[in-house]
Amino acid sequence: MELSQALRIERGVTSIIGGGGKSTLLLLLGKELAANGAKTVLCTTAHMYPPQGVPLVTGGEEDILRQLGQSELVCAGAPAEEGKLQQSQIGVNRLAALAEYVLIEADGSRGLPLKAHAAYEPNVPRETVRLVYVVGMQGIGKPISACAHRPALYAALLGREETHIVTPADAMAAMAAEGFGHAVALLNQAEGARLQFARQAAAGYAGRAVISSLQGKSPVLEIWEGGMSILC
Q1: What is the CATH number of the domain that holds 44?
Q2: H helices within 69-112, ranges in order?
Q3: CA 14 to chain centre
Q4: Are 42 and 76 in contact, with CB atoms under 8 Å apart?
Q5: d(CA 123, CA 179)
Q6: Do 213 and 219 touch, CB atoms closer than 8 A?
Q7: Angle (nearest 5°) at CA 64 between 31 and 66
Q8: Residue-wise pLDDT tens digits, 153-190
Q9: Tally of domains in the chain
Q10: What pLDDT digit, counting tens, does each position of 33-60 carry?
Q11: Rounded distance between C-alpha atoms, residue 30 and residue 20, angstroms
Q12: Beta bridge mates, 74
């Protein structure tokens, strides 16, 4: 099954938040939608590195339209420090008017598998029709201090110390504690023994959970709904 189907990506704006794998997911989804003939824009409301192999547009709407005339997939953003991109000068509502799909990386996690959000995060636009929360299974079995961005906040979400070893249930509890229980959960990095961690996490989630290995040939491994496996 394609990622877009598994995650129930709809036309319009999709925001991606959470931990390990957001940038990879953004690029894979974009390539998949573009390969199916859909005009797609990748962008950020935080900071991200430019996706490799994707035409970058730092100008206005006419530049976006011109590039979309040549390629189904483009990236819109403004230059930032350290070679990264920040939010495009074009508003999300306008990007959504120019393309069929707008995929947004809406927070940062400094490459760590788990994430807790400061008060000003994530920056999810009101135009968002699908929210995807990425949970990196590489964080399971490790202390909060070693695997979570903003570890003090993550520990507080769980009522634990930063030395606490994260369990699959903890990862989903932290997500719910921040009010993101309505999101589609992408349980990424579920290779090898970590597949069992992902299954335990999915079994405790009331919504849709997609178990994935974004680095693998077939990114979608399993789909769970309401704590039950519906596709293996």
Answers
A1: 3.40.50
A2: 92-98
A3: 9
A4: yes
A5: 14
A6: yes
A7: 100
A8: 999 999 999 999 999 999 999 999 999 999 999 999 99
A9: 1
A10: 999 999 999 999 999 999 999 999 999 9
A11: 18
A12: 41
